[in-house]
Amino acid sequence: MRTGAKEIGFRRLAAIGLLAAALAAPVLAQVSAKAPVAASVQQLPPPSTGGFFPLSEVKRGMIGTAWTVFTGTQPEPMQVEILGVLRGGRGPGHDMILAQLHGTKPEYTGVVAGMSGSPVYIGDKLLGSLSFRIGQFSKDPIAGITPIEQMLEVRDLPPSHPSDKNNDVARVGHPDFASLPAGDSSSQVSASSGSLPAAGDTNMQAMETPLVMSGFRPEAVRLWQDRMKGTGLDMVAAGGMGGSSVSQATSQTGEAGAIASILPGSAVSAQLVRGDLEIAATCTVTYVDPKQLLACGHPILQAGSISVPMTATEVVATLASPLNAFKIVNTGAEIGAFTEDRDAAIKGIFGAKARMIPVAISIHGVPNAGGDGTQAMKPRKLNVEVLDLPMLTPQAILVSIYNALLESNESSSDTSYHVSGSMELDGANSNSESAPIDAWASGGDGQPASMMAALGTAQDFTRFYLSSGRQGSIRGVHLDVEVIPRRIAVELESARIVSSNIVHAGDTVTIEATVRPYQQPARNIRVPVTLPARLQPGAVRVLVSDAATLERTLDQPRMTAKSQSLDAALAQARAQHAADRVYVSLLEPETQAGVDGRALTGLPLSMANALETQRAGQEATLNGETAITVADSPVGGLLGGFQILTVQIEPGGGVH
After folding, report:
1. What angle, rounded to 10 degrees, do the helices at 449-465 and 393-406 form?
2. What tens digit of pLDDT does each residue of 190-219 get?
3. Which of 90, 130, 368, 621 is the most exposed place for a label (fewest CB within 10 A)?
C-alpha cells in the first residue's frame, strides 16, 4: 500500500511539474526574447523598400509585424495576426483589414491613441497602417488596418493649384513640388476623424489623435475641448515642447539629421500653435521616401490641402488605460510641413516650410487704477504662431488669447480687460491694410471677463479672417491688453436737457447724463450739443446711449446673416465707437440706409426707393430715422444703457 501511494505521489508531482513547465514556457520565452528583440530593433529598423503587399492576397491567419514607438524615438516591433478583411469597413469601396496585436506591450497597453499610422508588414512588404479601434473597453487589442493601396492615393495626389496665393506653402530644396494651399474654407469638419464613441458603442472608430497643449492653463484646455468636441482633436494628452532629446540631438545634426532619423513607425507631430504656447497633434509614420511621408492612416480633420509644420517627436511614455491609452510626447525639431489631410492618410513634405500667422500679445496693467494706490502689473509679452486653416484658426486664436489673459497673479473675478490692436492684411494688389481690433470686458458680469474679452477679440479677428472678400494672406496680429484691477461697468441711470426750453435750429443745448460706476457714487456728465442749422421746426428725438446701442441704431440687424465683403467689414470696424464714452445722437425723421458697413444718413426719397431692391436681397438696411451723432464724452468705464429725450424746435432765430 505504501509503495503504491508513493508511486501515485511521484506521478502527481511529475504531472504538476510538467504542467508548471508548460505554463512557464511562454513567460520564459517572452522574458528571454526581450533582450534579443531590443538588439534587433537597434540593428534592424523597419523595412522601407520591400514593396507593398496587395490587399487581394490578404488571408486570415497571416502573421505580420507592426512597428511603433512605445518609449523614445526608436520604433519597436509587435506581432500582428490577420483576422480578415472587412469589405467596405471604411466606407463604400474602402476596405479595412482586421487584426489582433500580440506581444507583452500591446497586450498590456491595448490600442493606444497616437499609434495610428503604425506600419504593418507581411514579411518585408508594407501592408498598411494601424488606424482604427473597436470601442474603448475591449479586452483584446484588436485594430483596423488602412490598406497601403488607399494611402498611396494620397501620396500620388497632384499638387494643388498654385494660383491660390492666399494659402501657398514655401518649398525648400524641392523645386518639383508646387505651392499648396493651406486650407479650403469650404471644407467641413469630419466626424470620421475619430470622435469618442458613446457608452456601449462597438463600432470601428479612428484612433484618437492626442493633442499636446503645452503652456496652457486647465481653463484654456477645457475651452479648446468644448470648441473641438466631436472633431477628434478634443483629446488632450500630457506632453511638452522643445528641450527634448529629439530637439537637442537635431540641434547638433541639423534639419537633415532630423529628417534622416524618421523611419516607418516613428512618431511625428503637426503643430497647430507654436512659440510660447504649443498645440500639436501626434500620430505615427507609415511610409517614407526621400521627399515625403504618409502618416496616421486616417484624417485629422479631412481638411484637404493644408499647411501645418511637421516635427520629429519623442515618446516619453505610453500610458495604458482601458478608457483612453495614449502616448506622452515631446515635440522636436521641425522637419517639413504637412500638406494633405485626406481620408486615408496625411502627407508631409520634407524641407517644406508651412506658412503660419504670427500673433504678438503685449499685456500690461493700469497704474493707480481707481485712485487706490494700486501699482500696475509687470508687463508681459506672448509670441505665438498659429496655423492658417479656416476650420481651426479662429479656435486656436481664441484659446491662445484666453490663456494669455489668465496668466497673471493680479487676475481676480473683478479684473477687467481692454484689448486693442490690429490685424495686418495683404491686399489683392500687394497693398497692406490694417483691420482694427477692439474689445472690452468688465469683471463681475456673470461670465469671466477674461473669457468675454477673448471671445470679443476672436470675433473681431474672425470677421476679417473669414471674409469672403479677403484675397491676401494674414501678415500678423498685434494685440495690446490693458488689465484693469476693478470692475469697469458704468450704468447710464438717466439723461435730461438742462439748457433753456426755448430751442431753435443752430442753438447749443446742454445734455446732462447721470452715470453710476460699480459701487461708486453717481456723477453727472454735461455734454454740450450744437443743433444743426437745417433742422425743421417740430419735435426731434435725442438718443443718449452707450456705443453698442448706437451701433445697432446706425446698422440695423438683417433678417438673415449675409457674408460681408472685406471692404464692408473694414469700414464697419473703422467706424466703430469706443465703448467707454456716452454718445448723444439726433434721430431725425429722414431715411437712413446701411450699405457695405457704412451708414448713409439723410437720404432723399428717390435714393431710398432705389435701395429698396438691395434691402430685399439683404444687401442693405433702411430705417425711417437718421441717427446723427453730434457729441460724446468719456465716462471712465464700460458704459451700458440708453435714454431717449425729445427736443422741440421752435421756428425763428435761436437764443445764444
Report:
1. 150
2. 333 333 333 344 567 787 788 888 899 999
3. 368
